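Training component of the fellowship. As part of building independent skills, the fellow (R.M.) carried out the full modelling exercise for a liganded target. The chosen ligand was NAP. The inputs are recorded below so that the supervisory panel can assess the work.
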Amino acid sequence: MPAQSDKPEIKLDAIVIGAGFSGMYMLKRLRDELGLNTRLYEAGDGVGGTWYWNRYPGARCDSESFYYCYSFSEALLQEWEWSSKYPEQPEILSYLNHVADRFDLRRNIQLETRVTSAKFDEATNRWHILTEQGEHISAQFLISAVGCLSTANVPDIKGLDSFKGDWYHTGKWPHEGVDFTGKRVGLIGTGSTGIQATPVIAAEADHLTIFQRTANFSVPARNVSLTDDLQREIKGNYDEIWRAAKAGHGGFPYIPSDRSALDYSEEERNAIYEDIWKVGGFKFLWGSFSDIMVNEKANDTAADFLRAKIRATVKDPQLAEKLIPNDHPYGAKRPPIDTNYFETFNRDNVSLVDVKKAPITEITEKGVLTADDEYELDIIVFATGFDAMTGTLLSIDIQGRNGLTLAEKWQEGPKTYLGLQISGFPNMFTISGPGSPSVLSNMPVSIEQHVEWISDCIESMREKSQNSIEATLQAESDWVEHVNEIAQMTLFWKANSWYLGANIPGKTRIFMPYAGGIPMYRQRCDEVAEKDYEGFLLSA
Ligand code: NAP
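Fellow's submitted model of the complex:
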């Protein structure tokens, strides 16, 4: 038997790991529609996944609330009231708690339980997991809903232990909050998180020093309240919103542009950019021109427009130049959406340190030491991102057939079939795994598609009395090749981003998500299912 525990084995039909958007819906489908004896294990002491952990100041969603949510229940859509287009983290967390209560999910969710190992037993076609508390649970199916951005990356900087002040990573923010009043705060990192946190911390702290390694592009969110009239309009139009979102390249319910940025004069193009910049949000990338992510010249036009906006916003011209990105195409790093990010640099209590020019060499007891200077601080905030897409799965000791570990299997980067299964790991599914659109899309749309595909697959297996499903090596390697080919057609390769694993020292550089868009991906998944799960080996 693969698992060792002195506690009695708990036998289930399905185990789900993680109580975020994906895990909760997976549990609901398996339990309520398939009647499977399912249990969900979650490390945190509450549900919510990414919205449970990321409580940093300024945290809010970057997709509009009314489609950054579940679509599976019309009643839920009609009863839930979003306060604004881009609500803050507590509101999204209350939504997810509401979902847990409304669908009575909590009775099958075990909180404060970290899964430490998962081993497949070929003789019985069952997975055996062990938890940190030493529990031993077995099930026919194992479904990972661990999220793509759930293992915090705290850079290994010499001396952190010696720091006399307090330090925090944004992805593990204390529940009681952090009081910045009267404090000298250092913020390391200018990705989506750092860009959201900057204005909020600056408004509270005595002084905020931002340590920037790579200057970033950002587009204003232009958040507004959802008035009663807007709510009514949205709720009356949900069928169309979801039809459009599920058909949209990135899971957004607006029509992507089909025009080339290069077919317009500079004046006409900038007028188009200006109009869409006033709307704000992700529409700037997907709604302006169709070739921004595939043609460098087209991308330059968007990047130049955004650079001009930084110059127009930041009053100190030298500071503006430091904040202007010049080393990667716009959108090749996940584009942040902000509320007054660049404006914040006009405040007297905010300063910028370029740590590309003078790298951080050490954290001292007083603060941050760079090659140029020492910055005395009371609090350091690490907005330094995550070991994305693979970090959390690899932190669990997962062993498939013949004792093959996931760490061995993914030594040269993640390999999956459709981002849903891994050859050598039968009866295990990954929701929004590497090789699927996941992080390049509006996550709830991709998550629902995965959950529904997985539960339909399990239902079909049960109808046909099949008890094992495993992606073939051939289907997997064909898919990996296809994912790479699609990525090569884009500009995603031109930035050192977490999409490529480039933010983690030693991580294999490979483009992890699927860049072909949701419609093409969904069609492929549907075809596979229609052809009796083509590319999978099913056995009775
Ligand atoms: P990130 O995009 O990986 O950004 C990390 C930042 O930290 C980068 O500026 C990086 O610089 C910097 N950094 C990392 N290690 C460093 C070091 N040793 N020294 C100095 N700087 C260092 O992480 P994130 O901002 O947390 O965002 C991760 C993802 O979470 C986003 O891309 C997005 O998908 C998601 N997110 C979503 C939302 C939302 O929808 N509401 C909000 C926030 C985040 P380099 O660029 O030079 O590596």
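The panel noted the following from the submitted structure. The chain has a mean pLDDT of 97. The radius of gyration is 23 Å.
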